[in-house]
Fold this sequence. Notes:
Elements: E1 5-8, H1 9-12, E2 13-17, E3 31-35, E4 38-43, E5 52-56, E6 66-69, E7 74-75, E8 79-84, H2 92-101, H3 118-122, E9 125-128, H4 131-172, E10 178-181, H5 182-185, E11 186-190, E12 204-207, H6 209-214, E13 219-220, E14 225-227, E15 237-238, E16 243-246, E17 248-249, E18 258-261, E19 267-269, E20 273-278, H7 282-288, H8 292-298, E21 303-304, E22 308-309, H9 312-315, E23 319-322, H10 325-365, H11 370-376
Parallel strand pairs: 3-7, 12-19, 13-18
Antiparallel strand pairs: 1-9, 2-8, 3-4, 5-6, 5-8, 10-23, 11-20, 12-14, 15-19, 16-18, 16-20, 17-22, 21-22
Helix pairs in contact: 4-10
Family: Belongs to the type-I restriction system S methylase family.
InterPro entries: Restrct_endonuc_typeI_TRD, Restrct_endonuc_typeI_TRD_sf, Type-I_RS_S_subunit
Keywords: DNA-binding, Endonuclease, Hydrolase, Nuclease, Restriction system
Amino acid sequence: MSEWRQTTVGELLTLEYGKPLPENARDGQGFPVYGSNGIVGYHSRAMVKGPGVIVGRKGTGSSGTVTFSEGDFSPIDTAFYVLIKDSAQIGMEFAYHLLVNAKLTELATQTGVPGLTRSRAYEIRVALPPVPLQERIVEIIGAVDDQITALEAEADSLLRVRNAALGHVLTRGGEGWSSAPLSNAGTLTRGRRFVKSDYVQSGLGCIHYGQIYTDYGASATHTVTYLPESFRDSMRLAQPGDVVIAGTSENVEDVGKAVAWLGDDDVAVHDDCFIFHHDLDPKFVSYFFASPLFQHQKRRFTSETKVVRISAANLNKIVMPVPPRDEQERISGMADAMDVQVAALRAEAARLRQARVALLSGLLDRTIDIESAERKV
Length: 377
């Protein structure tokens, strides 16, 4: 067969149900365990031989999410896994790209817990190229994925260099340096509760603890979300120059991540965060919370349950080195310069991800020529 043909997802593959494997039954080693939105743990025995494709079956924001596993794996009962009906017609990796391009997340039903039904997925019409063309498309997209992976690896490496440099400088100290527990260096105030349904298009800027991990670097001048201006008097506010610290996380590594607020107005702070008011260089303080020195100290004070927390009382016990102000600014400037490079690498990776989506769509609907795509990548 040398021509593309029209078919449906259901004619090419089946979506099989994963099986229950509760967290307390996983031994944490060996093969990945997949839920509806990716890896949720590890277990020494795998249920499915790899390579394979996992599709989110239910869950808000994860129904229809498609993930590829290079090796053997176990899908739990919030996910489907793919079985190919005839491997002479379609390869597993091409099936992954086909399902990604099908935008299964848009098919999720919204009654009760959002979920993807197999019958709706099976009805999706797709154009299937012959296997040699499938393999060429997989290679083209793989080349883009390799570029993205390399950019992310370079960014991660640079962050490790930054953190190592911070650890070295802060541990070494110097003339005129002192040290003090946070309780002596400033004041900590817990934020006040608001919920995502409170958000509006504009108004009082607000910082939610989850955004500190996903949306902010070491400092920020604008918020990504807002509350009604009428909330101002009932909220606890960070002033320009304050540092906002996440008091809650899903892991020990992230709890205590901080962002220096450098905007022009006060901002509301969520009650799973702390506001640190001080007279130091704000970026220096924020970078201290990213340093190995802080990471090492905080492990003595975090409660390592399903949700990891650190209290204000324990944060106040953390000892911070305090160099002269000009040295604080020099250290934060050094870290800032590295962060600029990291941001540029992340931005290029994000640009390539967007280009990848358009490239895959164009290759599968034949608006992009395979030969020309091969020459460009």
